[in-house]
Design a protein that fits this description.
Blueprint lengths: L2 H8 L6 H11 L18 H9 L3 E12 L2 E13 L5 E4 L1 H4 L4 E5 L5 E10 L4 E6 L1 H6 L8 E2 L10 E6 L7 E12 L5 E2 L2 E2 L6 E4 L11 E4 L3 E10 L5 E6 H14 L5 E2 L2 E4 L5 H4 L7 E6 L4 H5 L6 E5 L2 E2 L8 H9 L6 E9 L5 E9 L1 E2 L7 E4 L4 E5 L2 H6 L8 E6 L4 H5 L6 E5 L2 E2 L3 H14 L3 E7 L2 E7 L5
Parallel strand pairs: 7-14
Antiparallel strand pairs: 1-2, 1-4, 2-3, 3-6, 4-5, 5-6, 8-9, 8-13, 9-12, 10-11, 12-15, 13-14, 14-15, 16-23, 17-18, 18-19, 19-20, 19-21, 21-22, 24-25, 25-26, 26-27, 27-28, 27-29, 29-30
């Protein structure tokens, strides 16, 4: 199994009913009650002092999520963790915890429950910012503390750290370990199908991180948050990964102001040079190899080719000898204003194996995900999503309009018409389909008229016309 896909599954936040029930049995009737974060008034050693500073700001997050399976929408409950980061009551957590939640409730350290709303979400870094309901807090006379954010660039290999959160529904859990690696790299990483980690590396720790820890803080013994716990591997001995807090510092302002992070894209995939510098007559560690260039991408249109060596962008050196250096270059490109003109300094081997020194100007576009939100087309019993240019490039399809079918309900109108998962619907009754909204409108009109209609789909590289008969006809 793909390592990144395997790790992403481990960060799930489903309810752990059995463990929660077992915990209630352990508590038992008649047991005395103490606050969950009962810290000594005079902490006697560094671990207690660090917990006293951060643990009151750590919260459990209960969410209601919606997913689509078999052409129908289902709702489920999930849990995760988070940390309050300022006096306004804003909470930092993972995208896969609350980024797509339809309802959010937060349980504070004193066990008071407050509703919250999503402020902004960014699946590229797997981070989400949520806001506690201020009116509700005032009505319930709720007081809270917030944590201090540290500097993850100062984290040292072997430094002691604590992971705090709600693993398997067990709230107010603390585990202890060290920083095992300060610059862990994952290639082509996804969580719940969404791209993540392309613009940052990870802090690796042996402090136990389990499902439900997602979104909770990784702290140092100064009582500072240095990471957001995200991934864990239960088949290993406490192999966990956290998003460096400096990554969060960079995205929080955009999440506050825009609800998302806008990034630039030019359409190149990169590869560390390693020992290839001999073939290009450049110094070791200079430049990065262009592994591929996206179809119809800005870089392709500007003349960038696979196997080019990118030496610099606007004079900024793009030196990359090892995989963990890739995120820095991707982040530099992504951080440029959308629509800006980037000057690429490139070395290219010609047919005579001679090096050409080129300067190529590329105009960036907005970065898009391959995955768009799903929409239920109820009359036809199917679920669709909008096409994105990224999806079309990855699927090696032309830039066409339509909607992608992601699931079909058995015995539905769409099922009887022969529509399948993965089909792209481009026309309905002669009407062009451009997005999910136009698809819903067309389906509703067909349902009202009760007449069979022709549906044009693209399946792979071929087009087909299917006859769809409304249920009521």
């Amino acid at each position: 199994m793909n390592l990144s896909r395997f790790l992403s599954r481990l960060a799930g936040v489903r309810w752990a009913f059995v463990l929660a029930g077992a915990l209630m049995m352990l508590v038992g009737a008649g047991c005395s009650y103490e606050p969950g974060w009962a810290i000594s008034a005079k902490p006697s050693y560094r671990v207690q002092r660090a917990l006293a500073m951060v643990s009151p700001a750590v919260v459990r997050i209960d969410v209601v999520m919606r997913e689509f399976q078999g052409g129908v929408a289902t709702h489920f409950r999930a849990i995760g963790s988070g940390v309050i980061i300022d006096r306004q009551g804003r909470i930092l957590t993972n995208f896969h915890v609350a980024g797509r939640a339809r309802h959010i409730e937060v349980i504070l350290a004193d066990r008071k429950k407050i509703s919250a709303r999503r402020v902004g979400a960014d699946h590229w870094t797997d981070l989400t910012l949520i806001q506690l309901n201020r009116k509700e807090m005032k009505a319930k006379h709720v007081h809270f503390k917030w944590a201090q954010l540290g500097n993850s660039s100062h984290v040292m290999l072997g430094e002691p750290v604590l992971a705090i959160g709600t693993p398997y529904g067990l709230a107010r859990t603390v585990t202890r370990g060290i920083i095992s690696n300060t610059d862990r790299f994952f290639n082509a990483s996804t969580i719940d199908g969404y791209e993540t980690g392309q613009f940052n590396n990870w802090l690796q720790t042996d402090a136990a991180i389990n499902p439900g820890n997602s979104g909770g803080p990784l702290i140092n013994l100064k009582g500072q948050v240095v990471g957001i716990n995200t991934r864990g591997d239960p088949t290993a001995n406490n192999l966990g990964f956290a998003i460096p807090i400096n990554v969060a510092r960079r995205v929080i302002p955009s999440l506050e102001h825009f609800g998302r992070v806008y990034r630039s894209y030019i359409g190149i995939k990169l590869q560390p040079l390693r020992d290839l510098h001999h073939f290009y007559h450049i110094g070791r560690g200079q430049g990065v190899l262009v592994r591929s260039v996206g179809v119809d991408s800005p870089a392709r249109k500007a003349g960038v080719q696979p196997q080019d060596v990118l030496l610099a962008i606007d004079g900024w050196p793009t030196n990359c000898q090892f995989p963990e250096q890739l995120a820095r270059i991707r982040r530099y490109i992504a951080s440029q204003p959308i629509g800006s003109v980037l000057t690429l300094s490139i070395d290219r081997l010609d047919s005579n194996n001679q090096v050409q020194h080129l300067t190529i100007k590329v105009t960036s576009q907005r970065l898009e995900s391959a995955i768009a939100p799903q929409h239920l087309v109820a009359p036809w019993g199917m679920v669709v999503r909008n096409l994105t240019t990224t999806y079309l490039r990855q699927a090696h399809l032309p830039m066409l309009k339509g909607v992608l079918v992601t699931s079909i309900r058995s015995d539905s109108v769409a099922d009887h018409a022969g529509i399948q998962d993965g089909d792209i619907i481009v026309r309905v009754a002669g009407r062009p389909i451009t997005n999910a909204s136009s698809m819903k409108t067309a389906a509703a009109d067909v349902d009202k008229k009760h007449n069979p209609v022709a549906v044009v789909i693209r399946r792979g590289r071929t087009r087909r016309t299917l006859v769809l008969t409304p249920r009521s006809s």
